[in-house]
Amino acid sequence: MPFKPLRLLIAYDNAGKRCGGVVARMKELLEERAFLVDTFELGSNTPDLDDYQGVVIGTPVRGLAVRDAGPSAAVAQFIENAPGLDEKKVAIFCVYDVRPGAVFDRMKNLLNARGAEVVTEYPYWRLQPRDGEDGLPAECMVRIRTR
Question: What SS3 state is found at 96?
């Protein structure tokens, strides 16, 4: 059986230019692991997920992650409205200022309510985004590629 690369979508909210700072490198690391990767900055429209085997969703987390702990409104709207998300394996990440807070618990609750399977999560510190940068791509290699 010939090897067939899997397609992933990285959908992220780039408010405050936080997530965009890690997405380009994340895309490179995923492509090194034989994924075909598209990126999509969340906004007014919702991407078609039919052609993707997995989705990576990123949100910024501002300040102390207490009052606005996330996920951002754009990410919450995407999770609630993206057709076909319930059929995908999903990896989640955040880019935080001080700490990630409860953002992953909140994102997982939204995704579980939709029926999506969360396979991994990873926080990136805005001031050192390359620290442990291969964590999420490596987990995607194992947890999304295996069916």
Answer: strand
Q: Pairing mode, if any, of strands 35-41 and 6-12?
A: parallel
Q: The domain that contains 117 carries what CATH number?
A: 3.40.50.360
Total domains in the chain come to 1
Q: Evaluate whether residue 93 is within a structural domain.
A: yes
Contact 35, 7 (CB under 8 A): yes
| 60-106 pLDDT, tens digit each | 998 766 666 779 999 999 999 999 999 999 999 999 988 888 899 99
In a domain, 1, yes or no: no
- CB distance 23 to 39 below 8 Å: yes
- Angle CA(99)–CA(143)–CA(46) in degrees, nearest 5? 70
Q: Is there a domain that residue 147 lies in?
A: no
Cα R_g (the chain), whole angstroms: 14
* Residue 82, domain member (yes or no): yes
Cβ(140)–Cβ(54) below 8 Å: yes
